[in-house]
Design brief:
Order of helices and strands: HEEHEHHEH
Strand content: 5-15%
Number of strands: 4
Largest sheet: 4 strands, antiparallel
Distance between the termini: 33 Å
Structural class: alpha+beta
Radius of gyration: 18 Å
Strand order of the largest sheet: 2-1-3-4
Shape: elongated
Number of domains: 2
Number of helices: 5
Helix content: 25-40%
């Protein structure tokens, strides 16, 4: 289980990295993207730390100002977007849409996806996955 301080850092991480659904956190609170887990492992080995994996989950929708999109923290206005722009946004954010979907259906799928928020209670201990091996 993560400390309250770590939970806040994880919330911030998932707000700032909306495409990431998983990350690695060391016991000193350093957070790494899952694709950079080798660096997390090295950091943990060098400092005698434990590793945990955190996953995004939950139902709370982050506010527009809390969700990092387009680098300025604001979500685009979906009502002003063309179908091609909506499809591009969905693809970029790993949201599955059908080419037969209407604009309203695509917006519903996007908004439903964005309602997912990180739940720090879902942190699982995965230290064994990254456990260093002894070199003789």
């Amino acid at each position: 289980m993560a400390s309250k301080e770590h939970k806040e850092k994880l919330n911030d991480f998932f707000k700032n990295y909306p495409k990431d659904d998983e990350c690695v956190i060391t016991s000193d609170g350093q957070i790494f993207q899952k694709k950079a887990s080798i660096w997390a492992k090295r950091h943990a080995e060098q400092n005698g730390l434990k590793l945990d994996t955190a996953q995004r989950s939950g139902k709370e929708k982050p506010s527009d100002s809390e969700t990092a999109k387009d680098g300025d923290g604001a979500l685009p206005d979906f009502s002003k977007m063309t179908k091609a722009e909506l499809n591009a946004f969905a693809t970029e954010n790993d949201i599955e849409v059908d080419e037969k979907d209407t604009n309203a259906e695509i917006v519903d799928k996007i908004e439903s996806h964005l309602e997912k928020n990180f739940d720090p209670e879902t942190i699982k201990d995965s230290y064994d996955e990254f456990k260093p091996t002894q070199k003789d």
